[in-house]
Amino acid sequence: MVSNPLALIAEVTHRCPLHCVYCSNPMQLAGTQSELSTAEWTSVLQQAGKLGMLHAHFTGGEPLARTDLIELIAAARAAGLYTNLITSGIGLNEQRLKSLVDAGLDHIQISFQDSREGSANWIAGAKAHAHKIELSREIRKHKIAFTVNLVVHRQNLDHLEEMIVFIEQLNPERVEIAHTQYYGWALANREALMPTRAQLEKAVAIIAEAEKRLAGKIRIDSVVPDYYAKYPKACMGGWGRRLMLINPSGKVLPCHAAEVLPGLSFENVRENTLSWIWQESSSFQRFRGEDWMPEPCRSCDRRTEDFGGCRCQAFLLTGDAMVTDPACSLAPAHSIVESAVREANSNVEIEQPVTATSFVQLQKLTTDVWSYRTNPE
Amino acid sequence: MPPPADGSQPRLAAGCRWGGPDQDRVILFPEGAIKLQGTGLQILERCDGTRTFSEIIGELQKEFGKTDPEKIRADTGLFLEQLQRKRIVDY
């Protein structure tokens, strides 16, 4: 008998007003027409509560693009779930924020692309930075938890200290400093995003200092980039061990990227219950436990800690989802990661932020650097 | 942050709240949940933002009459300080 999932990740839409170059959404976005209805999401949230899940993380795309978000938050609270909104803040004003809080929103997480406006808007492919600052002030008027999420990479790491001071002024309880992970759009843009070893080492020292200085005021969670780590990350806490992700069209996935894996078909909440999918579906059992593991994982002491690393990364880098995550220094295919690291360190240049009068023009001006995330049909 | 002062009024931080069924109460917070039993539960049930730290200590000292009162004060202070660092408790 498998234990209950702990949390639901509700990717309520893939529509987004931002075009972040490190977006974790799949490059094949779910179309607007196929999105689950309010009633379908309500049923999913009720099932999640009954399955013993404790948290519902609303994400996207931009969840605020759904006009029924207030109803969905209320439905999650009614199902006994702790509600977290992961957002760019675009589409949120004073009044809608108040309605969300009244509906039972517990926690809001706003992403910032940089402390410098020009750079932030360049990375996001949208003029969003100023609004986020304004919104952060509004959030502090309410009794909800506030986290700032900062995605760091080659283009902004050189002023990490400045970004931390900037975030301090926004007065959140928490900041998550997350190095870019290379899936979806971020993998396509890896060359422009991957930090050098020198950048990384400096960042580790800055974060350690900030943790000390801000202890009791702001809790800092930081995610180490796995290309530079000795062992792989325990992706999602292990396949089918803790989390269920529902994509905008109702597909149930063990993680954000699993749809890239060939030969696996994922169930849909329109056809099956969450409980059945968690306990019985072949997709959730595929890499659960240790039976599927190859060597060196199978006989490795760390197999119960990192579960062989990330299946999607194994596939994306080697073409085979069955092998040890190449981020692991013990993996037979580790040379792939080593060569990406070597390449990243052979060039220490960073780009100059670009401004443009429209998104289309910005795309044109930056084609040599990266591709922006686009929107679903 | 130092441990709570006598006159401070410990409480759950913004966005942290009780959840779970009655027999299995948990504190829900952004990154997860803590299942509380025994002393931890007795401390946090009193952190209602009204009672002062010294009132909470007084109640716990009555409850655990056999334990050295100074140890109760030190342990409770440390417990709340740790939760404060995790931004689950404010005082």
Give a verbal description of the structure:
- The complex is a heterodimer of chains A (about 375) and B (about 90).
- Chain A is of the alpha/beta class and about 375 residues long.
- Chain A contains 15 helices and nine strands.
- Chain A is globular and about 50 Å long.
- Chain B is of the alpha+beta class and about 90 residues long.
- In chain B, the strands form two sheets. In chain B, strands 2-3-4 form a three-stranded antiparallel beta sheet, with no helix packed on it.
- Classes of the chains: A alpha/beta (about 375), B alpha+beta (about 90).
- Chains A and B meet through strand 5 of A and strand 3 of B.
Sheet having the most strands of chain B:
3 strands, antiparallel
Q: Which class do the helix and strand fractions of chain A yield? A: alpha/beta
> What is the rounded Rg of chain B?
13 Å
The main β sheet of chain A shows up as:
9 strands, mixed
- Helical element count of chain A? 15
* Portion in beta strands of chain A: 5-15%
Low-confidence stretches of chain A: none
Secondary-structure element string of chain A: EHEHEHEHHEHEHHHEEEHHHHHH
| Distance N to C terminus of chain B | 10 Å
Summarize the structure.
By secondary structure, chain A is an alpha/beta fold. Chain A contains 15 helices and 9 strands. At the A-B interface, strand 5 of A face strand 3 of B.
Per-chain topology:
The complex is a heterodimer of chains A (377) and B (91).
Chain A: E1 7-11, H1 38-50, E2 55-59, H2 69-78, E3 82-87, H3 94-103, E4 107-112, H4 117-124, H5 129-139, E5 145-152, H6 160-170, E6 174-179, H7 184-188, H8 190-193, H9 197-214, E7 219-223, E8 243-246, E9 252-253, H10 274-279, H11 282-285, H12 303-306, H13 311-318, H14 334-345, H15 359-365
Parallel strand pairs in A: 1-2, 1-8, 2-3, 3-4, 4-5, 5-6, 6-7
Antiparallel strand pairs in A: 8-9
Helix pairs in contact in A: 1-2, 2-3
Chain B: E1 11-12, E2 17-19, E3 26-29, E4 32-35, H1 38-46, H2 53-63, H3 69-85, E5 89-90
Antiparallel strand pairs in B: 1-5, 2-3, 3-4
